[in-house]
Model the fold of this input.
Amino acid sequence: RMEGRLAKKEGAFKKRYSLKFPIIAVEDTAPMPSIAELHIALADIRPAIRRTILVDTDTGFYRLHHILQIAFGWQNRHLFQFKAAGYTISLPDPEFEQYGKIIDAREISLKEVFHEPGELMEYEYDFGDSWVHEITLKQFLPAQKSVKYPVCTD
Done:
């Protein structure tokens, strides 16, 4: 049944980035909910520092970086990267090419990576201090017309 659920999206993603990215997408006929509820927690910090945000699945990772900056009170003065399924999503920099292929954060959206509740990724901000945030997709929700997204709910 799982094999039957793989969508054309996976092939388009692989072709676009020339990578084998293990994403699972619903069939083209199934409507994709447009809001993702993300739970974000700073790793290895006690007491826990967490946020819950509601964000449109069309949101790109570069914009998500800025949303997280605001939600956690960071000042956007350092480099960042997302890690998902063994791949790095960030702003490409020739200086870091030796560390492998970087998917441009300005060219990929949440819906291209997150497909099932429970999926995880990391967001690292400030490579010197290495503030690692663990991001979990909790659920998809229908958008509410009266709400302007993104929203930090917790």
Notes: DSSP finds three helices and eight strands in the chain. The first helix runs from residue 2 to 5. The CA atoms of residues 2 and 114 lie 16 Å apart. Strands lie at 35-42, 50-56, 80-84, 87-90, 102-104, 120-125, 131-141, 151-152.
